[in-house]
Amino acid sequence: MTLTLPPKVTDRAFARLAEINEDAAEAKALRVAVEGGGCSGFQYDIRLDDPGEDDLVLEKDGQKVLVDSVSLPFLTNAVIDFADELIGARFVVENPNATSSCGCGTSFSI
């Protein structure tokens, strides 16, 4: 029997979400979803959203990251992080389930 673990969210990702929500009139959660498409077959949809009924909610210090039930199997054991690099700042997913990914990191295959 294989143990599957939900995705993890780094402290840096929660901190950046808190910064975003600090200036917002209404705090939103960060949704990380997987959709068909992109140059490698699947792509990440990362956006601010409200929780839904079938969402896994990962929470720290009042900040929430959401993963819907359809995306969850694709994100097993993944790490959701925030990267601030020369090419830009963005939320990123380190996904051990991906067998390949595109150069920009938003598209992957399993």
TrEMBL record:
Domain named Core: residues: 8-105
Organism lineage: Bacteria, Pseudomonadati, Pseudomonadota, Alphaproteobacteria, Rhodobacterales
Example of a GO MF term: 4 iron, 4 sulfur cluster binding
Domain of life: Bacteria
GO biological process: iron-sulfur cluster assembly
SUPFAM superfamilies documented for this protein: HesB-like domain
InterPro entries: ATAP, ATAP_core_dom, FeS_cluster_insertion_CS, HesB-like_dom_sf
UniProt name for this protein: Iron-sulfur cluster assembly accessory protein
NCBIfam families from the UniProt entry: iron-sulfur cluster assembly accessory protein (TIGR00049)
